[in-house]
Amino acid sequence: MANDLSTPLTGRRQRLKNALGRPHLPIARILFGLIGVIVIGTVARLVLVDDPAGGRPSQETGIVNTQAGNSVADTVASAPATITADPQQYPVDGSIVAVPGPAADAHSTPNALGIVPELSEETANGAIPRISGTGQTPFAAYHHPFEAASAGTGPRIALIVTGLGINEQGSLDAIAQLPDLVTLAFAPYGKALEKTVTVARGGGHEVMLEVPLEPFDFPQNDPGPHTLLTGQPPRENLEKLFWLMARFGGYFGIINNMGARFTASAGDFGPMMEELGARGVGYIDDGSSNRSVSAQLASANKVPYARASMLIDANPARSSILSALASLEAEAMEHGSAIGIVSALPISIQAVSEWSAGLDGKGIALVPASALMQ
Fold this sequence. Notes:
about 15% strand, alpha/beta, single chain, TIM Barrel, nine-stranded parallel beta sheet, about 375 residues
């Protein structure tokens, strides 16, 4: 320590230089300075030099209109616009000649079962009726092709035999005995419905589907599975209806099986009738309930409709059946027409077959039920 203090000042400076080595250059400052110079130069060039091309090579070329050199374009542009059409279809005098439409395809031709594919809609339960794309309805396609003029101007009677299809052989026997102008209604529960319905339609009969509806004493009196019930969500009842409608095809309309409670409830019956109208299917009320609102609902939904006058074999005895048929004749003479409901009992089928043979002598015409529907 004493030696350092006593050492001359020049000697201490020399030792300090030796300890620090060579002096360092300010490299960072130099780099920042260069970057600043480059940025300033670039900005100055952009501001002061007017060169939109950015120094890229360019060449000016004159634009020449070549339209005058296109003779086809000149002709089209100068000539008036004209449309050339077939003179046989569009004569110059302004009249229009009707052109035949396309030939009927396979969808509008009945299949082996007599069903028109275009009038069917596939569902999870099977095919159900619908209106075709051309507006044809199942009612128009499947009802009996009855000529109204053939019945004359006298009173008319229609008979609907119900309950067919459950007993296959009994149904086939009934079909064979009955006149082809008698309408046949099939229950949806038979095992051979497709066969019996095909036989019925092949014999000239028009056919209907029976739909079970809730009576007042349900479930003590039960029309069968998939019965439409009051107080149920409309979607649930429609699902039941679709299942029933898919049991067989070729029917022009529906008739109720029981249903005094259901047909009296517009809120429950309305969606069903609306569906029938949308699908072009008719409805016949069996006349068993005076509280039914079927007539109003059918009219509101444009559903072909009729109401039966009486049940012919409420008492299934021959004398009672003939008496009821006489009453049906009297009603037809008074009102011009009448519809009777007959069950598929063998005694009823035999009585009706014999009775119908004598109608011509009474001046009364037997007609299919569809002929009396509005």
